[in-house]
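Q: My labmate handed me this sequence with no annotations at all. I'd like to see what the chain might look like in three dimensions before we decide whether it's worth expressing. Could you predict it?
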Amino acid sequence: MASSQAHHPNTAFRQLRGARSPGEFAAAVRRAAREIGEQVSCDARYIGRVESGEIRCPNYAYERVFRHMFPGREPADMGFVPRDVVRGRGARENADAAPAPGGPADSPVESPAHIPDRHKESDVLRRAFMTSGTAAVAATSLGASLAGSFGTAWGAPATGRDRRRAGEAEAVAVEQAVRRIRLLDDRHGADGIYRRAARPLRVAYELLDADTRRQSVADRLHTGAGELALSVGWLAHDSGRFADARSHYAEALATARMAGDAALEAHAFCNTAFLARDAGRPRESVRAAQAAQRAARRLPSPRLMSLLTLREAGGWAGLGDRAACEAALLRARDLFERGPAQADPEWMSFFGPAELEGLEAQCWSALGEWSRAAEHARRAVDLQNPHFARNTALFTTQLAGDLARGGAPDAAAERGERALDLLAEVQSTRVRTMLAATARLLRRYRADSVVAAFLDRHEGVAATGA
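A: Here is what I predict for the chain of 466 residues:
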């Protein structure tokens, strides 16, 4: 039965279509989906439904495609209503609406005019994560916009009658901040973002001390603040600030424990395990990964358990325990093959076949199995979604290092050249440190022209800091 609710035309999306016909634009959407490994059945009718306002929020697949087509734009920039409205009151009011192509999230929802607008500063916070351009531009906008977003309303603790309230708008703002930071990291790496992300994290934790009328909002604020701490911690981790990362991860874990949030606790232990491995504390890595698995048993997500088991495998590899590592790798692959589930956390969007191969490559590399490591690293590069530019650079660099250690200097230098191409747009201290180690290994082969070309270029890049 069709909904009787009036539709409001989506003029923002219509402007994105430009001079193309609905059919031409639908074809462009399908092409963009193939580029990132998505499958959408987009046609002129679907485009018409979006532009008429009948579809007020795209499902996750369409959202990923639209983000790919229009980098830097959030769904709100494209005229869509936030997904939380679809899942909340708006979705319930329209439960009798006809389902749209592509899944239940393609549903009509309440008019944007009905969305709570209690705090204008929350809108500023959301817009701060909608900038496009290079990593430097995006990061600068991130910091500058957020510096003023809660400057007067949340700049100092409030007491007594001045005590602030937090509601739906603030919860949405924190959640969108997390998504925007992750998007910037996927595309550009952490180095240019970390310092500017500290302010929104501080604001998010201030919100936990605000008055909230609904427990559901308080729960979302705790989860959002914890996820934001993990995101900022990862930025510190990837930019080589291990002590800062450890502090942020511990903060997220404490938040998870206070809120009784098993998913957040599993995520916090997952990141802690990863950090411990990179910091040379493999036994701590194993323990943290096992703790993450205990927390995740309450969540029906085989893919999450697969990732956490891979974290454990990395710790065993660091300890040189080949048998335990192989056993963990086998369990991880078995769990991965069970496929995705509704309970898979949003933050795991990066975890696909490429990540599975890349993490296994790192295990074999730690065990000194260079040929086997290179085989998996090559698969990781070949399977990687172009959206995850930082991970493409990471696994390309991993492959270069494994080839160098395995006695294939020419091939290592060629992959090193490719890594340098990728690092022109990706700012990751972790990846650059790995590539520098590979360059040092290749110096003994400088007489080889291919190797010499790579070394000269790498030295030039290192000298300019580019």
